[in-house]
Structure formats: structure tokens, C-alpha cells
Amino acid sequence: MKLSLTGLAGMKIRAGDGLQELGHPEMLSTPFFYLAQPGDLLRLMDSEYKFNVATYAAEVENSWIYTYNYAPDESWTVYRQDLSGNSYRQDDYMFTECVYFRVCLRKMNGTEFEGFEDINDILSFEKNATPLPEMKPWLRKEIERVSKRVMDIREKNELSFALLTDTHYTVNGTWDDTSVSIQQLHDELGFDGIIHLGDFTDGMITRDVSRYYVEQVLGDLKKCEIPVWTVLGNHDTNYFRNNPDRFSLKEQCELYLGRNEPRYSIDFEAHKLRFIFLDSFDPDEALRYGYNAACIQWLNKKLENTPDDWQIVIFSHLTSISRLQYWAKEIRGENELMGLLNNHAGKILAYINGHNHADFLDNEESFPIISIVNSKCEAFTEYKPEGFITPDRKLGEPSQEAFDIMLVNTEQRQIRFVRFGAGKDKIVTHGRAEWL
Q1: 0.90 exceeded by the pTM?
Q2: Do 149 and 236 have their domain in common?
Q3: pLDDT tens digits along 381-401
């Protein structure tokens, strides 16, 4: 079968490190990584062109997992140094092993691309049919363990949700295992929804590639055919490491939230329960992290309009108070936000956030604040607030994964969290968060 490719005029693949680089109108390259199996074939269909192939081994360097170090081009692969200016060809290229690859094209006469050329009219990727992968034994075992745990403790009329954060989608990363696990758990447990607390990607690549990765993550979650609620993370602006190809706030709302505004609420009327989702980052502000005046005003109305006999859970990428995050000594709007939350603390079951890439339970305020560890298999201990827990992580075993099954019981004013993968279970009850 033929697999469609995506090409970008003006981009090259660098021979030295295999990374993409814009500003080369004489080249057209694939910004995406494609996975090839032995026997797959690249075939040139237009003799006015020539092509070059860069291949990448499906190997993961420890630095991507155990240090604060984001992989260039958001790819956990190792470039095999097989592309050069002398390796362009017009004959077929057959793959002899399982590798990721990207392709770079030139015109035989050396002229520039005009931007309308379709790579699929020039080059064909002919792929052999491959059987669907079987469920990994260790993943199946963890699904069974967590399913049994949830069924043992779940009570009648409790709402259940999959809760995850900081997936930071990466080529050759762990997202496929995460999405399969959530889908299988939903089949067995029946979630009422899925909540993602932001940072879908690293935000270091072009908007088109970031959009593709985000749509892949959201598409996998939506396979469960239940609501998916998200918040905007700081990396979701696509600004990281001075990336100039950013998403506007409007584009973020449309892409990540499927809404026109960056904050919203969801009501479960039968349970007298309200979920509130906040935005907490603006790369154009001097104080990037925090809650602007529009957010504070909106939240004030939402809290005031919530009946006193209802309960509220607030979700944000960022915590509500600066002492619980590392990257800024001050959070924009912190005093105003905390004043509002403290005034309505009797309604608030919990404030739940991601961003810190670590677990933490805070009971020092008038409501519990819960930080959730990153879903992406990453376990660096640098740049964490004091006392935060970074669980051990390892590829190819349950600790590779980390997300929660969240059970909300409004009759008991209680939330229970069952951890899938690395980390511990926890509970919010009687206004406090505790480890189990």
C-alpha cells in the first residue's frame, strides 16, 4: 500500500545532525518522521528530481528521560549519519531494517521549489502491510491491576475520569502505550470523561507539525467517544526555546479546547458538581505565568454563581500559588486568585494542576492543592519545588506510565485517585489531600 507523505518547500535535513532547517528554497523535505519496516520502498516517479534519505534508529537516550533536556525536533531517535550531499539518488530505496526516516528532495536542474509541488507526485512510499501490535504483557498486567482496584473501591453514583497531564508528545515516545491504556481502561470501567491538564507537545517545532501531533493525541483520546476536557499549558503556545512559529490564543482555543475562550466550566447537575478549567500562561507578558484580569473576573462570576450546595473542582496547568512552582518567583494575579478561592473555599473540593512534572499534595491553604506528575516517561529531579515527588520511571515497565483514574463522590465530598503506573494513590476527604 502507498502511504501519503507531507513535504515542505524551503526546508532541508541537515547532514551533520539530521535536524530540519528552514531557509533553503532549493530543497523540499518531509518535516515528519515516518516509520519504515524491512521491505518498504521509496520510489521516484518524476525524473526531474532526486532524493536523499536520512534514517533514525528507534533508540532512546537516557538524557531525554532523566535530565531536564528536550530532544531536538521532538524525536527520541538516534540519527544514523547516512545523509550527505553525495547520497542523492533516483533509483529505488528499499529499507532493510526497522527505522524512522525523513526525505530531502532537489530538482535535477538545481532551481528552487515554488511551493505548490506535491511530494506525492514526485516520490512514492510503498509500505508492506504490518500486523497490528499485540498488547504488551506488562501493560496488560497494569491495566488489570488498576481496573480491579477501581472496581473494588468505586461506589454507586461516583463519577469517574481519566486524568493526565504533560504528555509532551515525542516521536518514538510513550504516547501510544498511554492512549491504548486509557482506551482499554475505559472499555472496562466506563469513564464519564477524560481530562488533560496541558503541555501536549514540547512546543519547539513548526506549527503544522505541532498541530499534527496535538490532533493525534486528541484523536486517540476521542476514540473513547466520551467528552475530553483540556486546559492550555505553557508549551502549548508553541513558543519554547524562542520558537518563532507560535500559536495565537485564538488558535490555541480552537486547537486544544475546541472553544472560543481559554476558560470554561462543565456542570454535572445530578451531582451538583462543577468543573472549572482555567488558563494560566501568556508568553507575551513580562510575568508569563499566572492569571490575567479577564480570567480573575470570569472566575469571580463563576464562583459567585455556583450555588452554595454545589461542589467545585478547579483544573489548571499551573498551580494557584507561587510557592508550589519552580519557574517563577511570582505568579500574575496570585493575590487576587487566592483571595477568590479562599472566599469560596467551602465549595472547592480541590485545585488540581500539572506543569511541575512531579506529584505533591498541599494542605496549607483553605482547600487542597494537588500537583499531578507528567504522563510522558520523564523523571528528572532538577527544577522542582521542595518536597515534590518525582517517581522513578523506566521504559518497558509499568513505571513508564503515569496518570490517574479520578473518582468523584459528591455525597461524601470526596475524590479518590488511583494511579496507573508510577506514583501512589491519593484521596481528598474532609477538606484534606492524603496519600494512600
Answers
A1: yes
A2: yes
A3: 999 999 999 999 999 999 999
Domain that holds residue 65: 2-126
The CATH number that applies at residue 397 is: 3.60.21.10
- Torsion (CA) 139, 143, 144, 150 in degrees, nearest 10: 160
Residue 405: other Cβ atoms inside 10 A = 25
Average pLDDT over residues 49-54: 97
Cell 525523513, residue? 102
Q: Indicate whether 268 and 340 sit together in one domain.
A: yes
**What integer is the mean pLDDT of 4-27?**
96
